[in-house]
Structures are given as structure tokens and as C-alpha cells.
Amino acid sequence: MQLEHFKETLRKLCTEVENLTIENFVYYDAILESRSINLPALKERVAQAQLDPKRRKEVHQMYSEMWKAVDGTGTDAFFEDLLKNLPPSGKPN
Length: 93
Description:
Elements (H helix, E strand, L loop, with lengths): L1 H32 L5 H13 L1 H10 L1 H9 L2 H10 L9
């Protein structure tokens, strides 16, 4: 149970990293496109970009190794611990 909670926390962290990356891309593009920045319009562009499935997929692929690490976190240790704590069957191996 604690492992799943930990992994869910890591997943949320990864999603936030992706959101920040998308936000930074939008800011960078906006700065290149215009010398004057309208902050509310820029924030709206960020919100739209974060909802864009194509952009989400691109950024998700950038962090694919991070996601693999999160998904594998503790799995081996969990199963090893589970096997160590199995009740004895009463039968010789």
C-alpha cells in the first residue's frame, strides 16, 4: 500500500515536470514571436498547450526514461520482500 502511494506521488511529480516543460516551451516561443509580452494571454497559451494531446505526447516522450524509472520503482524490492515473508508451507523444498 505504501509503495503504491509513493509511486502515485512520483507520477504526480513527473506530470508536473512535463507541465513545466510545456509551459517553458510556450514562453520561449512567445518571446521569440513578440517583443511585448501580455502575461494573461501567455498564461492562456500555456493552459491550451498543456491540454494539447500532440504536445503532451512529445513532452511525455522526452521524459520516457523518467516514467520507466517511476513505474519500476520498488517493484523488485517489493517482490523480494514478499517472497521472504511467505508463511512456511510445512513441506520441504
